[in-house]
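Weekly sync notes, structure subgroup
Attendees: PM, AL, DS (notes)

Item 1: joint prediction request from the bench team. They want all two components modeled as one assembly rather than separately. Inputs as received:
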Amino acid sequence: MTLETEVQSLRQVPMFREVDPARLKLLAFTSERVHFASGQRFFDRGDAADAAYLILEGEAAVTLEGPQGPIRLALLGANALVGEMGILADQPRSATVTAEVPTTALRIDRRVFLELLSQFPQIAIAVMRELAHRLEMTNQQLAQMRTG
Amino acid sequence: MSGGAGAAGQTGTGASRAAGETPAGGRTAPGRAVGQESLDKKSVDKASAGQASVAPDPAARAGNDPEATDAAGGLDRSLFRYIWRHSKRDQILICSVVLASLPLYFASLDLPRRIVNEAIQGHAFEKGNETAKFLVLRLQMPDWFGHDLSLFNGFDVDRFELLFGLSSMFLLLVLINGAFKYWINVAKGALGERMLRRLRFQLFSLILRFSPNAVRQTKPSEVATIIRDEVEPIGGFIGDAFILPAFLGTQAATAMAFILLQNVWLGLLAAGVVGVQFVVIPRLRRELLRLGRQRQLASRRLAGRVGEVVDGIEAVHANGAEAWERAEIGHRLSGLFDLRLRIYRRKFMVKFLNNLLAQMTPFLFYCIGGYFALKGQLSIGQLVAVIAAYRDLPPPLKELIDWDQQRLDVQVKYEQVLQQFLPERLIGADGTGLDEPLCGRLAAEGLGVQEPHGPVLAGVSLTLPLPALVGIVSDGGPAASTFARVLARRVVPSSGRITIEGRDLSDWSGAALTRRIAFAGVDPVLFPGSLRDNIVYGLNRRPPPMAEAGPDGRDLAKDLAEARRTGNPVEPFPADWIDYEQAGVADAAALDALILDWLARIGMGEEVYRFGLLGQVDPDRHPELAARLIEARVAFRERLAAEGRAHLVEPFDPARYNRQATVAENLLFGVPTTPFLTGRALAEHPVVRLVLDRAGLTDDLVTMGERIAATMLEIFRGLPSGHPLFEQFSFLAADELPEYEAILARRTATEASAARHGGSAFNRIRRRWIGLGRYGSADATRLIALPLAYIEPRHRLGLIDDAFRDRVVEARGELRTALEEVGGVDFYDPDRVCAAAPLRDNLLFGRINQSVADAVETVTATGTALVQEMRLAPAITRVGLDHQVGPEGRFLSSGQRAVVSLVRALIRRPDLLVLDGALSPMGENRARTVLGLLLERFGRENSLVVVLSNDRLADRFDHVLRAAGTQIHAPDAPAPGAGGDVSGTGSNASGGQGPAGAGAAAPAAAVSGRAGTETGPGPARVDQDVKA
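Output from the run, pasted for the record:
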């Protein structure tokens, strides 16, 4: 797997769909590819948010520690981006992410990511668009819950 | 010559040599006497009594070479007196050789006349003689003196033999004169250099004696300039000071006398021109001197200014004052330029005049001398000889004039140098005195310290029973700190005195006090060197015994003789100067253990351990540790395997490509020790390139370089240069982008051209001619430089395949064979420690697989556990003591610097340790721990004085002094009776005002100061309490 395949994966992420390939290549190049063994933690709830992860291969579970053991919130597969909210909001991790099977991910360093955002408005706008989109979704869900 | 200790006290050259030749006796005898005395008088502090027996008594040390006492006594006001005092023997010797050479010089002037007259023109054969006498040795006297004194009647020779004989004699004289000149020049040079050495050493010794005030006024870079540059011409001149006028003067006088003897008129003519030269030229040069002096001062100030800017570069950057500083320096440079220009104009004008005068004389000689010759009053031989003699006249004259100018110039320089070293700027030389423990009743009597802006301490009187733990609570003003510094002898009080058991502290010898008192302030002074060097700095007090041979095989006896001749120290250096006895340990290893113990207690052990992990282990110096490291290396691997983590580290294997290491590292398979093999320079190394060519790797690397350059150009384009991402991630620096773009463009053009025109030899040449040579070696080198740093799993450009790896491993072997002869690489070897690599890498002996999450943390944890199990930590920490602290300790944090400074003081086991803000850089928590530690250790045999910024920790001290304005109160003496309690509480109340007053403005401090003087009787009462 080379940089090119990682760029392909990044293009699958809605947030980066519109971004120039050269910029995605820069993002990929400045990120690290890391392997997680099955059961190895990406990060724990409460950890400092220092990076976002793009899953390239494998699966990872998002869990919260409940009174009766961990509650699984979601299962992420290839091309899923996780932990990006933490680095944007500069807040501790809100959930724990664990590799379900041997997993390869692209670790996007927080500092580098913010550096790219400030340098390339195109990426910043893409991120904003995605966030606005999510906010919109949340609002709709909220409205549905109120009415429903 | 048996001076010994008896001659020790005398001054003067003769005595110096005498004493100097028996250094051992001169030094140890008085030293032992002092030790005996102190042993008799006290038995409290055994260690320091033993110390005293080896302590070098200053007088005895000076006696070792009494000329060194000059360094303590300052310099002569007049340069010539200084020169004469220190070098008269050499000057006289050289002068006499000069005089001895003169008759031969005269003969060499006379010979041309004889060759022309007697041999060529045949005057010797005039009376029909077939033969003439050759080599008649007689004392040649001028005609008017009468008969000659005959020594040898000579050989009979014919005309040709006479010619050749005389010519050979001429050649011989030239050789002899040359030999004389050679000897004189060497002797002169050595003399000058010796005097320069002496002068520089004296000046340096004087700097060590600068009073605090003088230090404050001095710019370090200016003083450095004085010692380095400004005395240089003085030294050059010293060799010439007496000899040059003697030599050239007599030479010129001889030539002049010779001319006069040949023809009085021509002689007078020459003398006249010379006289004009001598009178006019120096006058013209006076102005030059004045300008030169200005230039010296201006350039000294420039050096000082540059030094200031460098020291304060941070402030310059922080305040954005670069432009202002540039303009300021530009202004100074323009001033310097202007001065130099004026000097040049004048100088070359003088030169022109000088040349003109010098050329006038030959003209007159040809003209008038020819006239005499035609009239028959002068023989042709005489004319030739006169002209030859005259040709010898101007150079010495010119040099004499130069000498005179130099003399004036150097005298001025010398005086300017002296200005910096006036006696009033110095503190007294270290004399003899008491050397006893600082125990008993310490009393301050009317201490006052005056600063330029007013009094800081006024009439402070108090007593303290030592040893004790003393806290001085500051009121925010300078009084507490100043009082502590007075106690530590860092500040000389302007009035009053300090006594111990009734004896004035100034009765102690300076050396004893610096040994018995240690001080650590808020601004630790660290020197470049290792942590250890800095910590043991205060123990470097024991001159080691004389070595048998020099450290690098130099002739030690000769070195010592030179040192004595120049008043320099004769103690060996570099050598082990550490006084282990004072630290209370037996040897270097025990001292290291003691230092590490202190560092661990203070809480810097962990940091030093980490320095050790990054430090280097020299297997020759630490064979034991090296062997254990190899052991640990194997154990590390086994342990990782046992934990199922073997995949986290890819070990260095001579037969395998290490995927986690760079291409360069895989090629070298070692750590480069020269800059020629480090980083990109590897691509330019001829040996490396040869091996790459042979292994067929060159083309691969060039292609990889192209791919890397193309990718970097693609993804980093648009980032502003200087962006942090460049530095962190790019293979190229921002300013290299255009260069590599051009390289790639050339390559594309070449390929296009090759495709169009084919690859014939003609076309290849044509392409090279128009600058399209793809494999232009410079381009290739630039491209090869890029993949050297490439690691496939990290950079993921897909450039490396198995075939490439195999070839790199193959080339690795060849490269090692080729480089082992040249050197410059410390190769990896599974069974050996790589001295150039950090200890940590030697332990790991591989590269951590970065693409496994948390690999570094896991491997580090395993390594730490292993180190602990194998008990390697102490040895590793000891390596950490070799950590370099950088200039002024800048590689350390301020907290670490403070720890180093404190341990430096502690390791000396002082009688009295004074801390003034020394703990504050450590941070509050550590400072409190350290203070607790110190309070435990001190108070029984040694005293501790700490300046406290508030009351919080005051109750842990035996005695708490309170600063208020310009006063120090001793309110709560230890309470042997009720009276003590009363006085304690009473003064506590008044002392309590202190901190409150500190917050307020100056008037409040003044009020409390007055209050302090009003409570004058207070200290006396405390005093009584103590006695009771």
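Discussion: The first helix of chain A runs from residue 3 to 12.
Action: AL to compare against the crosslinking data before next sync.
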